[in-house]
Structures are given as C-alpha cells and as structure tokens.
Amino acid sequence: MFEQLPAIAPDPILGLSAAFKQDTNPSKIDLGVGVYKDENGNTPILKAVAEAQSRLLASETSKVYITPQGVQGFIDGMLGLILGQQSSVIKDGRVAAVQAPGGCGALRILAELLKRTNADTKVWVSDPTWANHIPLIGNAGLELATYPYFDKAQASIKFDEMMACINTEVKAGDVVLLHGCCHNPTGADLTKEQWHVVKDAALKIGFIPFIDVAYQGFGVGLEEDAYGIRLIAENVPECLIAASCSKNFGLYRERVGLAAIISSNSETKQIVQSQIQSVARGIYSMPPSYGGALVDIILADTSLNQLWQSEVTEMRERMIQLRALLVDNLAKQNASKDFSFVNDQKGMFSYLCISPEQVQKLRKENSVYFVDSSRVNIAGINHNNVETLAAAIAGVL
Ligand SMILES: Cc1ncc(COP(=O)(O)O)c(C=O)c1O
Predict the structure, then answer these.
(1) Residue 33: what pLDDT?
(2) How far is 120 from 110, CA to CA, in rounded Å?
(3) Rounded to the nearest whole angstrom, what is the distance from the C-alpha of residue 276 to the centroid of ligand 1?
(4) Active site amino acids
(5) Ligand 1 pocket: which of 108, 246, 258 to mutate (most atoms <8 Å of CB)?
(6) Per-residue pLDDT reduced to its tens digit, 28-66
(7) Residues lining ligand 1, CB < 6 A?
(8) Does one domain contain both 321 and 295?
(9) Residue 143 to residue 125: CA distance in whole angstroms
(10) 75 and 200 share a domain?
(11) What does the alpha-carbon distance between residue 329 and residue 266 come to, in Å, rounded to a whole number?
(12) What is the pLDDT of residue 228?
C-alpha cells in the first residue's frame, strides 16, 4: 500500500549538510544548520552539562516512567529563567506548563492545544520565519497566514508594514507567533519600544501572542533577551510560550524544551494544565527525562548555574565578535555592498541579503554552504575561514 506515497525531497537545510559532507574541497565552509560551533568547528558538551551528567549518573536510581508533564524542577527552573524570578503570573498560579521533546515538540503540542480549543484558529507568522514553523503548526491542522517582517532591500525590520497588517487583518482570537529574541532566520529583533507597540495591539485587538524562544542568552543577555516575553506575559491576559534548550544548553540531541500557557486566571490554568498533559499523552506519552533532569540540576545549583551562564556569555560574545570580523573582512575585500547591518543583527543567524543565485554560486564555485534565503550560521565562521569566506562573498556580488 505504501508504494502509492510520493517520495519527499530532503529538508533544504539537512540536504545542505549532506551536500557539504560530500564536497571534497578542503576549504569548504558550512554555514547551514543552526548549531553553535567553536573556533575549531566543534560543538562540544558544555562544562556545566558535563558536570550535571556526572551528578545525574551518580544519583539516578531508576528509569521508571516520568509523568506527562515532565521533570517538575525543570519546569520551575525554566519558567523562572524565561518569565523572571519575580513574575506575577507565576505567583498568581496562571502558568500551565509541560516539558516537551525540544522546542519543536513544544511548538507542536501548543499547536495541538490551539486546535482543540478552536479548530478554526488562524496563526500569523512573520515573513520570513523559521521554515519548520510551517509544518509544526500547519500539520496540526491550523490555518497559517503571514505578516510582513523583514525588508531584504533595506536589511531591516519593516515594522510599520508589520503593524499595519496586524492592526487591519488580525482578528480577536487569532494567534500571532513572535520570536522572543534572535529572530530565525533574519537575526533582526524587535526593539523594546516595538515590543510595547505589539503588546498594546494584542490588548486592543484581542489576539493571542505565541512566543517562540530558542536562543535566550545568544542576543544581548539571558535577562535582556527575555524583555519582550516578560512584557507580554505580564500584561496580556493569555499567551503561549515555546522554549528550546537545544542551543543555550547545547542539548540538541537530548530533545528538551518547554511548552507554557498563561491563562487569565488560576482556575483556567488548571483546565489548561490537564488539557496540555492529555495532548502530550496522546502523542508521545511523556517527554524523555534526561535533558530536563540535566537542566534542572544546572538551574538549581548556584555554582553550576553560574558556570552555565558564563558559558552562554562566552558563546554570545564569540558570535558578536565573529559578526564584526566578517563585516571587517568584507570591507577589506572591497565588497560592493555595505554589510555593516550584520553587526546589528542578534544571535546565531544573519541574513546577508544577497540573492539566491549569488548563494548558489557561492556553493558551486567556492564550496560555501548556506540556505538560498542567504541565512548564515554566524557560529560557523572562524579566524581560519573568514578571509576565504569574505573573498568568496565579495566575488559573487
Ligand atoms: C526559531 C526556532 N524555534 C524552535 C527551534 C526548535 O529547536 P529544537 O526542537 O531543536 O529544540 C529552533 C531550532 O532551530 C528554532 O530555530
């Protein structure tokens, strides 16, 4: 019976990794898939994670099932990290949450919850957004629409157009997906003032903000990167949050994330908590415990927490330096385009704002790999490859 199924083309980003592996050019450069890399191109286990692993190994006595909501210490620790230790919504008992298998798992179960709540829910995503938002939310059966976000010609957010769309087309009960920080793919984040405008629009129109936060700590700092999420959570009666520990804890393959829902009161929270656990139970029963247990150990222990924060700072500062290094090298190569906007972008990604043809030429002629949209993984740059990279980019302009 399965012969009637059509074969599906590989995911563009994963396909790119496969093509990179096959390329025999010794100077090839991989700026595709979004994982942090150090100066040697490795993605090592964070020291805080390694220490938490030793402690967990020494203390774990059973592999018996955990509950559908996951490791409670992980949930509490993550809510404090994202919403702030002083969060009134936590104190008021308005936050329902479950540990999820990665940020992807969190996005999907929140989409399933929306579907259960109202099958006609329309979810607005930024144009562009992370490509996987579309299947993760769309495959739950929800209608998707886009709001304007990024102007490639100006290399900046088109905030007036974004708000004009939200103010005229988004209806009460619609859901608007926002990137908490380090927008993927553009690296262009809303300013504090712009977050206030979005918050006011949510209150006026009655749309539900759905915030995806996959890079907390990679933009400006762990606290600073949560500004928009906290503003929305403290002021808008209902919102959804999907968080990932893949990047800032380097726990990619352990699949650890958090799905949280803020309800307008603590009674509704109880209902939502039962619903989200039932959604999880119906898909994968309970999340893998391991990654959540590690994050719990790290966040609960003062010295491990400090070590982890210093490692996040190190990753962030390295990426900020790499941005400057790339911009300087492009200027040295007399690139015919001003790339200084790269320094203003945040997090792991940058949109170089060059054409798909130029990106393909770079791949074919220079063995430089990144997606056609011109999104590059900044962490894939290092002091050894930056000059070659800048010369190649300047060459295709
Ligand atoms: C914007 C965004 N959201 C969510 C995720 C999900 O991450 P994961 O499922 O690996 O935790 C990613 C990963 O690349 C992402 O870029």
Answers:
(1) 87
(2) 15
(3) 20
(4) 130, 212, 247
(5) 246
(6) 999 998 999 999 999 999 999 999 999 999 999 999 999
(7) 34, 102-104, 130, 184, 212, 214, 244, 246, 252, 257
(8) no
(9) 11
(10) yes
(11) 54
(12) 98
Residue 366 is part of which domain span? 10-44+304-396
- Ligand 1, residue 184: give the atom nearest the CA: 1
Cα separation of 34 and 31, whole Å?
8
Measure 80 CA to ligand 1 centroid, in angstroms.
20
The band of 17, judged by pLDDT with boundaries at 50, 70 and 90, is confident
How much is the mean pLDDT over the chain? 96
Nearest partner of 369 among 5, 3, 25, judged by Cα: 25
For atom 4 of ligand 1, which residue has the closest CA?
A: 103
Q: What pLDDT shows up at residue 10?
A: 77
* Ligand 1: centre distance to CA 107 (Å): 9
295 and 309 inside one domain: no
Give the position, in ligand 1's atom list, of the atom nearest the Cα of 130: 1
Per-residue tokens: 356:
């798909």
Report the pLDDT value the prediction gives residue 222, as an integer from 0 to 100: 98
| Statement to judge: residues 282 and 319 lie in one domain | no
Of 279, 300, 321, which closes a domain? Answer: 300
**The CATH number of the domain where 28 resides is what?**
3.90.1150.10
The CATH number linked to 133 is 3.40.640.10
Instruction: Give pLDDT, residue 327.
Output: 97
Give the ligand 1 atom nearest the CA of 133.
3
E strand or H helix that includes residue 327: helix 302-332
19 Cα: distance to centroid of ligand 1 (angstroms): 22
According to DSSP, the β-strands at 95-100 and 257-262 are: antiparallel
In the listed set 267, 282, 300, which residue is the last one of a domain according to the structure?
A: 300
Q: Whose CA is nearest to atom 6 of ligand 1?
A: 103
Is residue 2 domain-resident? no
Q: What is the pLDDT of residue 18?
A: 87
pLDDT, tens only, 242-257:
999 999 999 999 999 9
Residue 213 confidence (pLDDT) above 90: yes
215, 220, 224, 226 alpha-carbon torsion, rounded to 10°: -10
Domain for residue 1, yes or no?
A: no
Q: Whose CA is nearest to atom 12 of ligand 1?
A: 214
Co-location of 314 and 329 in the same domain: yes
- Residue 376 class from Cβ within 10 Å (0-12 exposed, 13-18 middle, 19+ buried)? buried
Q: Whose CA is nearest to atom 7 of ligand 1?
A: 103
Nearest CA to ligand 1 atom 13: 214
Q: Which atom of ligand 1 is nearest to the CA of 179?
A: 1
